[in-house]
Write a structure and sequence with these properties.
Blueprint (H helix, E strand, L loop, with lengths): L1 E19 L5 E20 L4 E5 L13 H12 L6 E6 L10 H17 L5 H11 L3 H6 L2 E5 L4 E4 L6 E7 L6 H11 L12 H9 L2 H7 L1 E2 L2 H7 L3 H10 L4 E4 L6 E5 L2 H12 L6 E7 L5 E5 L1
Parallel strand pairs: 1-8, 3-4
Antiparallel strand pairs: 1-2, 1-12, 2-4, 2-5, 5-6, 7-10, 7-11, 9-10
Amino acid sequence: MSVTVRVPAKVNVQLAVGAARPDGYHELANVFLAVGLYDEVTVTEADELRVTCEGPDADQVPLDRTNLAARAAEALAARYGRSANVHLHIAKDIPVAGGMAGGSADGAGALLACDALWGTGASRDELLDICAELGSDVPFSLVGGAALGTGRGEQLTALDVGGTFHWVFAMADRGLSTPAVFREFDRLGEGTDIPEPIASQDLLDALAKGDPDALAAAVSNDLQPAALSLFPALADTLAAGRAAGALTALVSGSGPTTAFLARDPQSATKVARALRTSGTCRTVRTASAPAPGATVTTRR
């Protein structure tokens, strides 16, 4: 028997970052929006735990026990006193090391797929608890839609979204390490008073109304200066998207993927076409939001 789960990418429409905590993490006010770019994780019973991967940049995905999908299978198996002997196959479509939570998506997908395959009957709260142990973005990958993440991003409050938002994503020619971007954030902020992260009410209202112009005026990413410091060429990509008519442009999460909000599908197509010919990025994708969280699609 095998189970396949589809799980979405995310964009951070607000990423407010506080000072580093004693445990090394940062307090966040992280407004997640799931977007319609998906990985698929298929789990099949096997003699041992094994990970395979296909798709764009699959060669950059670790296939050992450091992979979040493998860690998710082991964590669920440990809770229910069984072996994690499964073959995890990841079909990638979310950019790798792109700031869109592709690895976190795979962890959430594997967790839900193993739960279905083994019939563990874990509650939603149990699954979210395991997700939080795996990583700060993993819980949102499970639930999808839109949510405010506090703490280090793992404490979620669902948000209302009153319409469909149209996005264009430009993938860079190399990745950025999330820990490196946070270290650069700390370096740039050294000696300054970093305020407590708070969600923008204007942004939450814009999401609830489904208003792209209001959302464009409210998006923010406190990690963007750090990402640009480590990868200055991203500024050219952001400028190219704005020049093509994007309502706003920002680095997605820790980067280096850049995100452009468009007013409608036609505008998104125009922005995507301009970015493809700009010479400032490797590939370009369009997607709408919000998208559902991890979902079982097939059982065989």
